[in-house]
Amino acid sequence: MSQKKKPQLFHIGFFYKLPNPNSNSTKYIWRCRLNNCKATGYTFTDKIGETDVKFYITNEIHIETPDNTRFEKLEHRLFLKERAANSDDKPRKIINLAERPYEDNVLAQLPSNSADRQAIVREQKRNKPQYPKQPEILSEIEVPDWLKMSLKNEDFLFYDSGPSDMDRFLIFGTRQNLKLVEYANIFCDGTFSVAPKLFKYILFMLCLKMKLSQ
Ligand SMILES: [Zn+2]
């Protein structure tokens, strides 16, 4: 698949595109990605990459020379971008994870480590949430809406004693989790070490959830 989500097929050094992706026919006609190249072939599915696909060449005369490294380069870049967007991994780790037993000619064509590093940092910056600036006094605290929700989109900021409270405190939790308190053993624990500036400590309430044996 190409990055623009348009199906693209790679076959022995050449890329093909699907000019009519939604045709009703069961035969999918692919043309060389280069506009004035007349090479064509067909498949019986457009689900490229999901299954083994047989590609039947109808015209194998290309005007361009094959590029056997382009596919690996694309895959490499996609992997870096996806990992950078979806993890907090350091660039070094992502670069290590992207390593494959490439052939020498592919290795020579891949971006340098520092180019990869830059691409990763750029992607991570782009995906970084916009946190409000560190408040100086308790009354300045304003929790942005997106931090009031859990990752599952449930209400997460349960209670806020308000900006006029000299001893301001906030309670975070979900309604679903609060239900557990009803029947469970509750353990409380506090920690000073990870409390944010302006706060003395964070108090946790943990519930022991037990499955009844049958
Ligand atoms: Zn071609």
Key descriptive features of the protein:
214 residues; five-stranded antiparallel sheet; two-stranded antiparallel sheet; elongated; binds zinc ion
Strand content: 15-25%
Residue-averaged pLDDT, rounded? Answer: 87
Bound molecules: zinc ion
Largest sheet: 5 strands, antiparallel
Going by helix content, strand content and strand pairing, the class is alpha+beta
Q: Note the total helix count.
A: 5
With strands numbered from the N-terminus, the spatial order across the biggest sheet is 1-2-3-4-5
- Shape, principal axes of CA atoms: elongated
Pattern of helices and strands: EEEEEHHHHEEHEE
- Radius of gyration, whole Å: 27 Å
The total number of structural domains is 3
Extended strand count? 9
What is the terminal-to-terminal distance?
49 Å
Low-confidence parts lasting 5 or more residues at pLDDT below 50?
Answer: none
Provide an overview of this structure.
- The protein is of the alpha+beta class and 214 residues long.
- It has three domains: 8-59; 70-127, no CATH class; 138-208, no CATH class.
- The protein is built from five helices and nine strands.
- The chain has a five-stranded antiparallel β-sheet with strand order 1-2-3-4-5, with no helix packed on it. Strands 6-7 form a two-stranded antiparallel ribbon.
- The two termini are 49 Å apart.
- It binds zinc ion (ZN).
- This is FLYWCH-type domain-containing protein.
List the helices and strands and how they pair.
Blueprint: E1 8-11, E2 14-17, E3 28-32, E4 40-43, E5 56-59, H1 70-86, H2 91-97, H3 104-109, H4 113-127, E6 157-160, E7 170-172, H5 175-181, E8 185-191, E9 202-208
Antiparallel strand pairs: 1-2, 2-3, 3-4, 4-5, 6-7, 8-9
Helix pairs in contact: 1-4, 2-4
The structure holds zinc ion.
